[in-house]
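Open question from group meeting: does this chain pack into something compact, or does most of it stay loose? Before anyone orders reagents, we agreed to write out a predicted structure and look at it together. Recording both the input and the output here so the notebook holds the full record.
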Amino acid sequence: MSNYQGSQVVIIGLGITGLSCVNFFLARGVIPKVIDVRLCPPEINKLPNFVQCYLGAFNDTWLLHATLIVVSPGVRLDHPILVEALKLGVEIIGDIELFVREVTAPIIAITGSNGKSTVTQLVSSMAKNVGWRVGVAGNIGIPALSLLNQSYQLYVLEISSFQLDTTYSLRALAAVILNISEDHMDRYPGGLKQYCLSKQRIYKNAKICVMNVLDPLTVPIFKNYDYCVSFGATDSSADYHLKYYKGHCWIVAYNEYVLNCSTMKTNSRVNYINALSALALSDIINIPRSVAVKVLCQFSGLMHRCQLIYENRGVSWINDSKATNVGATKEAINNLMLSGTLHLMLGGDGKLADFSSLKHLIKQHEIHLYCFGKDGLLLTELGYSNVIFTNTMTQAMRIVSRRIKKRDIVLLSPACSSLDQFKSFEMRGFTFAYFSRELG
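Structure tokens returned:
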């Protein structure tokens, strides 16, 4: 445990993460100062009156005279005043760094461009089914510091690249990078290489690394681990892989047939691959296979992730609002069983991503495109015909509802962040679900 007595602490960001950092320091007798560039940050009403707060811009004086700056994940580290503070020797960290300095129980650390929340839920459910006290937090929506109020036997952390950028002391029992595809390019001027290096930080000082053999970018670049475990679709060279046997797809671990995928509630190949990594992690922490298999069989997928939310008149409406990058949208399209027309809804804030890799898929499947939001016009360039641009998702859905026929699929898989028009991807998904039933 670290001692912060006498530290001049400044916290940037007053969302749920920032508020958890405030409470962390107050519990240790340190009164931090708080900065938020928003004039009305979401947790402002929960901030104690005696905590000084500066809104609407950065307070350069506070930052340059601090001994410790704690930034929320949404804060850019390349801001000139933070770069200057760093040069002056001010320590800049995030909430995950504060958390890992405090805990002694083993940590399972999970990152990747897609699938993080699914694998986090699977592994934590497996451990809870054994009867363990499990703390689950991080990018999944629960601040890690909120777990310090109780005692846990295991922590399962979903960690984003932004959180990894400000984490230095993580020593995970097992760490996994599920996959890496272009995302958040607006935050990484160095492109995919810089983004990949951020993800790789999860392996640093990890005891066991779990990698995806089909994605070379997930191979550990740090070599101080005890050993490495691999997973990878139908690649039999992987320790955990899928294998087709007598007409069925099986999960295979070290050449042992563990689970017939047809017994799982989800029929998504993406979730079969997520199951491989979850099983690998559960084996590392010695969860009985019977318990792990039971959890995998009961899992029906996450909300807003390739979720069939409505069927009517032979038309399926699928909510994949959690697809906030190109890689996730490609996976969603590739895993659909199409017999009619696919009406694909794309749009939002693309975060400077390169959408061009979607073009071949759209042409191959003759997909009808409905593009909306901040980058909607840019996305229309992916189509060859049957491309419609609207300002909002709801406008697009009204047009879709007049064009659908039996056996068609309407898929919301935006390949973009929702924050240009929605509070969150969840809100975007709930809106899609509501109007699916209204219009379908």
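Observations to bring back to the group:
The chain has three domains: 9-93, 98-298, 307-439.
The radius of gyration is 23 Å.
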